[in-house]
Amino acid sequence: MLASQRRALILETLAREGQVVAKVAAERFGLSVDTIRRDLREMAAEGLLQRVHGGALPASPALADFAARQSIATDAKDRIGRAAAALVRPGSVVFVDGGTTAGRLARHLPPDLAATVVTHAPSVALELLDKPGIEVVLVGGRLFRHSVVAVGAAAAAAIAEVRADTVFLGVTGIHPEHGLTTGDYEEARIKRAMIAASADCVVLASAEKIAAVSPWRIAPFEATTTVVALDPPEEFAAAAARAGVQILAA
């Protein structure tokens, strides 16, 4: 079997079953496990999938940079942002993470809402300029251009000083077994810091992020209080219920 044929079969399996188990795939295709593992390594290097122990899972298309992500699932992100904005209560202190969906959340906050938004994303702060009731605390640090957010020790230290009611978190992957993940080590650290400094964690999850996995783990799935999503798959919703994670339909 040619390498191109093996890759096509692996991608078909991934799309159909949501995972590839190396041993099972080897038996199914009549190949050695080493051959399948080599294919998975090469495909992971090309961004076609995410390797995990024993096989592979879908790679998140949300790993693209900020500019590219602005054109992905715009209607869905708007609905998710609107639903998440409704969770921000008067008088609350909330973290709003970076990302295109978080920007939609900021856009949908009422201008007369009296609340405090702490963010390390300049794009989120700019969305709040015309909302005089909202106090904006902008966390500084090294600008990570890929996601247009502040990262690094200074940002982590500033976040640790806050005691927020809720963090509205952006991720590139949310998986019941592999948890919340993202594509950058420093960004994962900042997201963990916001979770640790918040009473509740609300994950903004457009369809391409659900059941996907990225290289850097942020936190276990159970660290999530609520997932705001648009028509999540039944299997994912069932896993969330077992973990005590609420699903809020956008």
TrEMBL record:
Signal peptide: none annotated. GO terms for molecular function: DNA binding; DNA-binding transcription factor activity. Residues 3-58 form the HTH deoR-type domain. Keywords: DNA-binding, Repressor, Transcription, Transcription regulation. SMART domains: DeoRC (SM01134), HTH_DEOR (SM00420). PANTHER family: GLYCEROL-3-PHOSPHATE REGULON REPRESSOR, HTH-TYPE TRANSCRIPTIONAL REGULATOR SRLR-RELATED. This is DeoR family transcriptional regulator. It comes from Oharaeibacter diazotrophicus. The keyword Repressor applies. InterPro entries: Carb_Metab_HTH_regulators, DeoR-like_C, DeoR_HTH, NagB/RpiA_transferase-like, Tscrpt_reg_HTH_DeoR_CS, WH_DNA-bd_sf. PROSITE patterns: HTH_DEOR_1 (PS00894), HTH_DEOR_2 (PS51000). Pfam families: DeoRC (PF00455), HTH_DeoR (PF08220).
